[in-house]
Design brief:
InterPro entries: DNA_methylase_N6_adenine_CS, Efm5/EEF1AKMT1, Mlase_EEF1AKMT1/ZCCHC4. The protein is an alpha/beta fold. Helix content is 31%, strand content 17%. The termini are far apart.
């Protein structure tokens, strides 16, 4: 092989610039990429990452659940969204269109959502009570949770967080196969409402509550 630089393939300036632009675009993720075309609180503004068991709700379901927790929290109520970023995003969208304001916090493992600022709280269900000091016990009017995995172990740990944060009301979204565990761990009843996702899931998905809800009928 020749030592001469003449034998090394060279890219034109235009081709090199195009290649650099492609790599720059490929390296952009989450809110940074999508905020160009969409509002940062749109459902799907952060792409699903199936490696983290992320499956976003459809627009209709996110709206229905957000309206439910807003109604249950009441005016100036506080809402905790555990592993439910779609609902948090929809709450922020609805916030600007309603006079009965509420406040919401997103507890989430995916640090891309840190772009939402102080309302983002890093959350790992493996450490269910490792929470910031400002998240006081029984300080939320309602907690909505969507555990990432369909297992009793995961639900049991998330239940510890839910019961620590809520004043009483709980809305759980998880698989139909978790009905018995939802009742045993948090005394929840299954709703007739059928939540939908942007991508169909293999497992039937349901909602569970411990209060009188429009979702029950």
């Amino acid at each position: 092989m020749s030592d001469s630089d003449d034998d090394v393939p060279q890219l034109s300036a235009a081709t090199l610039a195009a290649l650099q632009e492609f790599y720059a675009e490929s390296g952009r993720t989450g809110l940074e990429q999508d905020s160009i075309q969409t509002d940062k609180f749109c459902v799907g503004a952060v792409e699903e990452d199936w490696r983290m068991s992320q499956f976003w709700y459809s627009e209709d379901t996110a709206t229905r659940l957000a309206e439910e927790v807003m109604q249950q929290a009441g005016e100036h109520g506080r809402i905790a969204c555990i592993s439910a970023p779609s609902v948090y995003q929809k709450l922020k969208q609805l916030e600007s269109m309603r006079s009965d304001s509420v406040s919401a916090v997103l507890l989430e493992f995916d640090r891309r959502f840190a772009a939402y600022g102080e309302e983002f709280v890093f959350y790992d269900y493996n450490n269910p009570l490792c929470l910031p000091e400002n998240l006081l016990p029984q300080s939320f009017d309602i907690v909505i949770a969507d555990p990432p995995y369909l297992s009793e172990e995961c639900l049991g740990k998330v239940a510890l967080t839910v019961k620590y944060l809520t004043k009483g009301k709980i809305l759980l979204c998880t698989g139909a196969i978790m009905e018995e565990h939802a009742g045993k761990l948090m005394d929840l009843k299954i709703c007739s409402f059928l939540p939908k996702h942007n991508h169909n899931l293999a497992n039937e998905f349901r909602c569970y509550v411990n209060y009188e809800s429009r979702l029950l009928s």
